[in-house]
Amino acid sequence: MNFNNEKELIRQAGAQLSPHADKRMLASVIEKFNSRVAPPPEHAIGAGWPLRIAVAAMIIIVAGFFVYKHTGTVDPINPAYGLSELVRATSSAQWVRMTGKFRPLLGSPAARIRKTMADFQEVWYCGNPSMLVVKFGSGNIQIIKPSQTIYYSAKENVVTITKKPQRDFKLYEISDMLESMLENAQGQGAKIKYEQATYDNQPAIRVHITRTSDSGFSDTSVMAEKTSRRIRATSSVTYNDNSKLVNFDNKFEYPATGPRDIFEAGAPPDAKIIAETDF
Amino acid sequence: MSERLNTGSIMEDKLLVFKCKRGNADALRRIYEKYRENLLIIAGSILHDSSEAEDVVQEVFAKFIDKLGSFELRRNLKGFLGVCAANAARDRNRLIKKTVGIDVVAETTSQVESALDGVIFNEQAMKLRAAMSVLSDEQREVVLLHVRTDMSLRQIAAQLELPTDTVKSRYRYAMAKLRARLLEVET
């Protein structure tokens, strides 16, 4: 036997676990992994359709809108700014951009949601084609489309494009989200009061929404009088135990267009691109 | 002599590690499936004990998961895991020899191996394990890491925190002894 044969013998040496032992070991490894590894907060969005939409869209974006459906009582003195008008005005927007602060409050439940929300810096929603763009304070960016997720890691300067099966996934239209949240808000009963105001030297309507139950949204928003669209909001979500989950302080804009891909969203042109399909 | 690195595999590993760090259990499953055999061979050849080898592989993955948060894959995941397996196997060997005694270990090992079906070694592996018994733990470690993980002797020296010349001489003497042993068996 010569030198190469010895090396070949070492290379060809094989071993495998019995199926039972293999299954047991893999289960043990995965269990440890799941119990020890917490994904970065932003990745909570990328995990599991349609849950991610429930988290990303319904909470981030819809929360800004659905407060208007916490109604039951609309101040009769100014019915012109009723909810249907807001829905109509919002639904007509092709792009919505939300910026501002989303402050998680200590001591509240849903810690995972708090972590997820804490780093959000800017959110874009496009109605057609349907897409959600989330920019994080860390510099990371995530774009969610019905058939793929595009994730830019600022630390690694890598763009990962993950193609998704389309099943079980629907990126809600803004109007769908509004309607959904309107239904959910029924029965929570919130008082809504309108008052004339100015915002950025423009005529505006300030809307106060006061929860009347132990839990739900409280909100003070500014609507542009001309468009009936919400342009500023400070709001909070209160849980049944009277603890607050989050405080919002956001600005809403309705530009004609927005970032259509990860590079327009802010990823540098030299970022490395990795394409993959979902496991 | 440095083996040519499998660039495609390393790129895949980088992606898998990236995904693991983001909490993707499927990526970890892929790493496990990709490298468990190699780790079993390394651990099994150093330990001569199937069940201990199985434990070592599990220990390697447990440590990998623990370190994942700060882990940066710079070169070769196969090599990194291989070194972890070799280290863990060597530590176990020392512990067993210290607490039980070499003679007793040899006897117990053969009994355990016949009773367990956890790890199944192929014919070459059995032949290799028999031949490797003439090598010291340190020599086995260097040979296995070099041939099974595509690491250069210089890289192995760096990983084991040993002078490169020491690793080179261990490898040279080990291969000579292995060759002689295999010739002896054949004749």
Biggest sheet of chain A: strands, sense, closure? 13 strands, mixed
Detail the poorly predicted runs of chain A.
Answer: 39-85, 107-114, 167-187
CATH class of chain A: Mainly Beta
Tell me the distance between the termini of chain B: 29 Å
Q: Give the class of chain A from helix and strand content and strand pairing.
A: alpha+beta
CATH topology of chain A: outer membrane lipoprotein receptor (LolB), chain A
**Number of domain units of chain B:** 1
Mean pLDDT of chain A: 66
Helical content band of chain B? over 70%
The multimeric state of the shown protein is: heterodimer
* Topology, number of strands of chain B: 1
Q: Mean of the pLDDT scores of chain B?
A: 77
Coarse structural class of chain B: mainly alpha
Instruction: Based on the coordinates given, report the CATH architecture of chain A.
Output: Clam
How many domain units of chain A? Answer: 1
Q: Give the topology string of chain A: H per helix, E per strand.
A: HEHHEHEHEEEEEHEEEEEE
Give the helices and strands of chain B as they follow along the chain.
Answer: HHHHHEHHHH
Largest interface: A-B, 41 and 53 residues
